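Q: What would this complex look like in 3D?
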Amino acid sequence: MNSFINVFQERQDIFLEKVWEHLQISIIALVIATLISVPLGLILTRKQRIAEPIIGVAAILQTIPSLAVLAFLIPFFGIGQTPAVIALTAYGLLPILRNTYTGIKEVDPALREAATGMGMNSFRRLSKVELPLAMPVIMAGIRTSMVLIVGTTTIAALIGAGGLGDLILLGLDRGGDASLILLGAIPAAVLAIVLDLILRLFERTSAKSGFRSLVILLSIAALVAVGPLAFGGKIQNDITIGAKMGSEPAILINMYKLLIEDETDLNVGLEENLGKTDLVFGALQEGSIDMYPEFTGTAIVSLLEDEADSNDETEVYEQAREGMSKEYNLAFLEPMQFNNTYAVATTEETADQYDLETIGDLRSVQDEITAGFTLEFNDRQDGYQGMKEVYGLDLAEVETMDPGLRQGAIENGDVDIIDAYATDSYMIDLDLTVLDDPENLFPPYQGAPLMREETLEQYPDIEEALNQLSGQITDNEMREMNYEVDFDDRDPEDVARDYLTENGLLEE
Amino acid sequence: MITFKNVTKKYPDGTEAVKSINLSVKDGELLTLIGPSGCGKTTTMKIINRLIEPTDGEVFIHNKNIQEYNIHELRWNIGYVLQEIALFPHMSIEENISVVPEMKKWNKKDLTNRIDELMTMVGLDPEVHRKRKPSELSGGQQQRVGVLRALAADPDIILMDEPFSALDPISREQLQKDILSLHKEIRKTIVFVTHDIDEALAMGDRVCLMQNGEIVQVDKPQNLILHPANSFVEDFIGGRKSPWQTAVDVIIDQTQQHVYSLQEFEAGALPVDETYTVKKSNGNFAFGVHKGRKVDMPVIEHGNTLAEAMSFFEQENYSLLPVTRNNELIGTLSYKDMVLHLKKHRRTKGEVIQS
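A: Here is my prediction, written as structure tokens for the whole assembly.
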């Protein structure tokens, strides 16, 4: 509890900003969903034949996982609030649409006949009789959508839309920092409850005033949604650098920004925490970001869907560079030194106890130790499958687990060795040591800036600025910097600046 | 007032709800439509305000084809009372009554006065009930408001679709009386659908009996009973609950043999040992004469049932009593008439008389 309060106090300023962003995105999506669904629902009650198919479409939209919708939208709308709002809107359609349709349809036919028989035209019947009577049901739909949207908005952080999801992602990235996760999750829940209360108040009055209260509600919501945008005026950036989730990409793009702004007159904008490879790469192709740091290994395996021809760092980089240029018209600048490849790590204690230095040394204790591997590592040729072949290993016990759980498992002594990324910061925190890979089983994963060729043509100076990092930053240095951000809670920008000045790449 | 010319309603599945009917409803008349369920009585009524469009034939109101009216204006001038009452639950009593006048753009003051007038007319205190919601009223009160809603904009025609069938017997009886006295007062043309033959006979100036989408007989209540067009009419009327429920006017003596004018009475040439009634020159009941002396007699309303009439006979010692409709003396009812009627309608099972 104490740590939670600490985390809250430390991040008070960004916390309020995130709450506001969250509210804004949710309300924009809710307003748009309402503006689409209510009129559509009303039309469907007049055209019953197409009603079920259309509601079916809304239901299908609902079944698509929100993350998939986001990934799907990136090629068309890039990253940021626009695709987030579109995805959330699609998510909020069904409850409002269905409740509007049902609410109007369930109005007592006798009342409808009375209204018609007394000479009301279709619009008057709708506004005076059907809508007021259906209003509680419609409002219930809006409330359901609101809760769905406020909850799902946390995922929008993955594509750079901001909101409380940023805090949750940060917490997850820090090996499940419960305080940070709660700082994002609890306010999201509170937000949902407060909005629900407000909507309920409107629901009470809506039975009386029908149309009017809906219009009032929508205008207030629209004001909240648009208000802050008016004075939010953003600086126009010349180029935008994106990054995957995590501290390492965040530090790297800050270095890029510092170097580019130092060497050129360009303004650089940053989009941190854009989720996993697919999302960032999608954003790069679409053009909402101009570059992001990518690993040579990932470029070949995931993006080019190829296999590395060699395990030599230079050859792998060349293969990736040619591939990216040919396939995607992307420039892959020179890589830094550190190699964030798969590593097999164990505690120093265990290493001392069994005298472990290389992966091959595990053979002598393979019946005594327990391994904790991710599902993916366990299954990959450049993972445990390769270890078995190349080093002739056959570990007696392998437990597969989620990446976030490995650190806890090795800390508690549930497992003795885990797979890790070479530069992960918790290696320092947990006193882990990396076992050598003399056979070069794991392909190199060196970080390098991946950018759009047209951006490079437009601003050729960038290449020189960024190539200053070529061959810089060792595994250890990277690990240290990650540690400072993850565990000492330093700002990635400060860490990046310190490194650059200490190494003479940037003047103080 | 309302004229049906060869009106047919055929549904896409081929069923004919109404088969080429011809009917005219007279100005100021209360016509009851009755028949077994599915006979087309409700369809016929709903054709008038175009809730149902006929597939063939024409309907005229004031000699103008209803298709030529603006459909909404046509409906504003036809009050509509529903079986389900169907007051708008989200509106107050006042708002419910105001629906049509508002569409006709009445000014606020006229409307307020009209609402006061109407509510007072049916015994609802406007001060108390104006702002109430329909759910705060009893079923009987609700349908009273339902009737007021239909009357509000002062329409020429009022359609009532089994308006009392959802009510308990006591409320129903009370409302029947109210509608009759209302009708006497305002003389609107009313088309009243019912499935209750006693209601049809008691309420209707004329009764229109339908079967399988066709009109079997349109006639005054007593003619329907005295001169049924065919055995269906006879059976339908005979199938009532009990002869005691029969309305008085179907059995009263219409030969006027016990009715004399004031002049005849004053001339003094009347039989001394008989009981009889005397009417004024305007046709209204003046007084009764019993054993040669003027006496006050209780008056039986033509809509009273036999059972109700019996209670008047129990109170008095006269062998016959006057029957009036709208104060007009239309005949007399005697013990003998009643007994003969009961005898005619007694039902027997085996040798045992049931009623």
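A: To summarize the key features: Chain B has two domains: 2-245, 250-342. Chain B touches chain A through 22 residues (CB under 8 Å).
Q: Very helpful, thank you.
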